[in-house]
C-alpha cells in the first residue's frame, strides 16, 4: 500500500442506476451490487477521538497487489480469524486510536445495506377486535337483564394472553362522608332528636292541640307544657309520637298551671331519656338549640343564643290560671307547636323548656310566629316541678302571702296582705312598694312574682321596699301553695 495515496474516490455505480435523492425512490435492484474485497486501508481510517458510533465506508481498489484489510473496516467481506462479529454488520475494533485521518462519505445504498443486515423481529399479536365487540354486546345484554338493582363485571379474553378486565367508571358522588363535629348543631340534633316527641291532644269538647315534649327518665315520663295538655285534663286523649313515627297513648300524670308544666307517661316508650344541664349557669350569648314540632312539623331543629336571663313572662287566660315564668330568652326560632320541647346547650344537655313567644301588638290570633323573641322555663325550676308531679301528681310553688297591683309600674306595690302570712310577719303593709329581691331589681309586679317562684318553699328572701318614700328592708320565709 502506497503512503502517497490521494483521497479515496467515491465508489462507482452502475450506469443504469439513477442517483438517490430524498425525493426519488430507489430503482429496483438498487443496493444489490456485490462489494469488492478491500485492498487499501487508507479509505477506512477514522479519528479515534470521536465518541460517536463508527460510520461505514466502502472498500476501495488499490493499485498495489495483494489483499490487505484496514483495522477499521466494516465486516462486509471475509472475516479475519482474530475477530468474530456478534451480529452482521458489526464494526471491527479500532487499534490505532491516535490516528487522525479523513473519513470517507457513506455509500449511496448504505440504508439498503443496513436494512438487509438485520432480521425483523416478531411482530406482537393483535387482539381480535371481534372478541372485544362480542364482549361489549355481552356486557350490554347482562346490564339490561340485571337492571338497576344489580351490577356485573364482564371480562373479555384475547388470543390467549390473559383476560382484559373492564375498567370501572370514575366514582361520582362517593366522597368522604361528612363528619359530625363534636359541639355542633348537627351533633346536638343527632343526640336529642330520639328523645323528643310530638304530642297530639284531643279534649272532651273535641278541641285539638299539638305540642312537643321530651323523655326525662326510663319509665316513659315525658315533660311538656301545661297549656299543651290542658284540654285533656277533664277528659280526652293524649297521643305521643316518637321520632320513628310510632304513636302511643299517654296518661296525664300531673300538671302545674303556676309553672306551665305537665308530665305524661307512656308505658313501654321506646325512646332514650335526656340529660339535664344547669340553667343557672347559662350565660347571655351562649349557643343553644331548640327542638320540637312547630306547626305540626315533627323533629324540627333551630339554633340561636341565649338573648337574656330572668325575663318575667306571664301566660294564661285568667289570674288563677296564670303562669309566671322567670324565663330564659332566646332568638332560636320558636313557633306554635314548639311548646314543651327542649332548649339545649351545645353539650346536648337540656337547660330549658320552650314555652312562649312574644307577639307583635295588634296581631290577630293565629297570625303569631317567631320574631326572634322566644322564652323557655329554666330547667332547674322545671326539674323540681317534674319530680313533684311524678311523686304526688301535683306541685307546689312558693308565696309570701301578699297580693300586688298588676297595673302599677316602678316596682311591685302591695295591694293586700293575708293575716299570719310570711309577708305579715315580716312587717309588710298595703301600699309598700318592693324594689329589690336578693339584690335583683324589681320594676313590675310580674317581676316580683317570677323572682319569688324561682325559689323553693321554705327558703328565705331579702326584700327592699319603700314606705312613704323611705327605704326599708325585710327578710321573708316563703310559704307554699299547690298549683
Quick overview:
This protein is of the alpha+beta class and about 475 residues long.
Give the helix/strand layout.
Elements: H1 110-117, H2 129-146, E1 155-157, E2 163-165, H3 185-192, E3 196-203, E4 208-215, E5 221-224, H4 226-229, E6 236-241, E7 247-256, E8 261-265, E9 275-276, E10 287-292, E11 300-315, E12 323-330, E13 342-344, E14 349-357, E15 374-378, H5 379-392, E16 396-399, E17 402-404, E18 412-417, H6 422-426, E19 433-437, E20 440-441, H7 445-453, E21 460-467, E22 470-477, E23 479-482
Parallel strand pairs: 9-14
Antiparallel strand pairs: 1-2, 3-4, 3-6, 4-5, 5-8, 6-7, 7-8, 10-11, 10-13, 11-12, 12-15, 13-14, 14-15, 16-23, 17-18, 18-19, 19-20, 19-21, 21-22
**What proportion of the residues form beta strands (DSSP E)?**
25-35%
Profile the largest sheet.
6 strands, antiparallel, barrel
- Count every helix, treating DSSP H or I runs of 4 or more residues as helices: 7
Shape: elongated
| Measured distance between first and last alpha carbons | 139 Å
Strand order of the largest sheet: 3-4-5-8-7-6
Q: What structural class do the secondary elements suggest?
A: alpha+beta
What's the total number of strands? 23
Low-confidence stretches at least 5 residues in length (pLDDT < 50)? 1-18, 46-80, 138-160
The residue-averaged pLDDT reads 76
